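QUALITY CONTROL LOG
STEP: pairwise intake check
CHECKER ROLE: data steward
CRITERIA: each record must contain a sequence immediately followed by its structure tokens, with no blank fields

ENTRY 1 OF 2
RESULT FIELD BELOW
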Amino acid sequence: MGKLGKAEKPKKKKRRVRKVLFLLIVGGAGALVLSEDVRNKALDALFGSEEEFQYSPPAPGSGNGDSTAS
């Protein structure tokens, strides 16, 4: 019964996982801010790749003919 009165010191919890997760989040945010390639890949992954449109202006003289309507 001599050891019942003695309280053990609480051990400090290791927060290694929390530190690593924090560093990954901060590093990822930094990469998104600083690198345009990483930012474009992330946006493509989230929203899909951007569609590229081929714009060709209408041929001259092929107007709608609004001046003939009365």
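ENTRY 2 OF 2
RESULT FIELD BELOW
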Amino acid sequence: MQLNVDTSFWTRYRIDNENPDLDPGFTFPQAVNPPGGIKNRTAIPRNDADIGTSTPGNLTDHLKAIAFTAGFHFAFIEQGGSSLYPSLAQRVTDPEVLRILLSIGPTETQHFQTWQDKAGNATPLTDIDPVTGSSVTFLDLTTNQPQSLQANLIMPEPTPFLSRKFPICSIIRPTNTKGAAMGALRAYCGRTFHRPDE
């Protein structure tokens, strides 16, 4: 399995002066492996070799990298849902469809907050995947980081909303309705989720 994970969601929710709805051209930095994020990694052990000599309480860096990749991947997926449901809710006209979107969206946000918190517990390491040759470096996000990388900021930092003339506030972002569904599809497909032998 080869997986790409865009970790820019991490800084998107911590940078307080940029909003993808107001600044669609702004590139939010990656939290892992800048500038490209996590590339060509597995988030599930493929075989016994990926587990290696790991024992409970004494995991190899390779197995940790697999787990950390999974944590950031889950947070990436849930962040997409956190934005997708409010974006789509603004366009629906049927009350039952609106009820569905408004019922699922907050759950996605809770999942995002949980997985973002778990991903922030990654310990610093660099690992080279023995199958893909891809390198990944996880930083210690718990100490000595700028605000845009701090692990303990699991609530969205306030940012400009609707217009820069209004005070900043804490929001889900992006929530622009234009291209919301296609944007979600592009992000989902951009993960290149396939096995190496395919």
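INTAKE CHECK: passed for both entries
DESCRIPTIVE NOTE, ENTRY 2: The longest strand covers residues 38-41.
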